[in-house]
Specification:
With about 140 residues, the chain is mostly helical. Among the domains are: about 20-55; about 80-130, no CATH class. Helix content is about 45%, strand content about 5%. The chain has helices at about 20-45, 50-55, 80-105, 120-125; strands at about 115, 130. A two-stranded parallel ribbon has the order 1-2. It is elongated, with a radius of gyration of 26 Å. It starts with 19 loop residues before the first helix and ends in an 8-residue tail after the last strand.
Length: about 140
Amino acid sequence: MPEFAKLNYVIPPQMAHLGLAKANELFFKALAHKVHAARAVAQAKGKDFLGAKKVMKTALSKSAATNEGIKTKTPRFAIRDPERRKAAIFRWRGFLLAYVEAFHQWRLGNRTIRFPEGTWMMKRAHRAICGPPLPSDP
C-alpha cells in the first residue's frame, strides 16, 4: 500500500453552473446532514461514534466489539418467487454435486475430467477443463 494517495474531486455536470464554492458548500451541508442523521440513529440505539481524534488514537490491534447475534442463515439467493428460488437452489446443488465429483476425480489424477461451468479457479490456476457436461460424461 502506498503511504499516500491522491484523490481528485470534480464537480458533477449537474452542479457545474453553481461554481466550485457553492458546490462545496452544498456537498458539505449534505454530508453534515447525513452524519447528523446517522449519529441520531446510533444514539437512539444507545451507541455513539468515536470521532476522528479518538479513532486516530485507537490501537491498530484493537477490534470492534459487537453484541449482534450470529445469524443462522445467510441466503444465497434473493428471489421472492418460491418456484424460481427452488429452481435456483436445484441448479446450485447440481453444480455442487458435479464439482465435488469432478474434484474427487481430479485428486485421483484424472486430468481429463470436466468441471462444471462456473469453476473459474480450477480453470485459471490448474488449467482444468470446464464447461457443460458432454453427452458421454456421467
